[in-house]
Design goal:
4 strands; two-stranded antiparallel sheet; 92 residues; 1 helix; mainly beta; 10% helix; globular
């Protein structure tokens, strides 16, 4: 399980789409390379998972996903995300 503390990736910024952007544009990511490089140098492990969220005030932001499966409870980590159902393939 993850702790309740929130972590934000330094140097990475998620922005809502520009008001004139087409519907298929959901947002943009800006990276301040020097800051993000320094941040990545402190990350332990091979992966950094980042969730793109919207605050209660409507502001877009990026937050580090700290979910860790509890192996003692048989969690594999797959429970956190929906998995494709191979028994019912899509009709196309």
């Amino acid at each position: 399980m993850s702790d309740d503390k929130k972590y934000f990736p330094k140097g990475l910024y998620f922005n809502e789409p520009h008001e004139r952007a087409p519907d298929f544009v959901k947002g943009s990511v800006s990276i301040k390379v020097a800051d993000f490089r320094d941040y990545l140098g402190k990350v332990k492990g091979d992966w950094l998972n980042i969730d793109l969220k919207v605050s209660k005030d409507g502001k877009a932001y990026a937050e580090v996903n700290t979910f860790k499966p509890d192996k003692s409870k048989g969690e594999s980590g797959k429970e956190a995300y929906s998995q494709p159902n191979d028994e019912n393939p899509l009709p196309f």
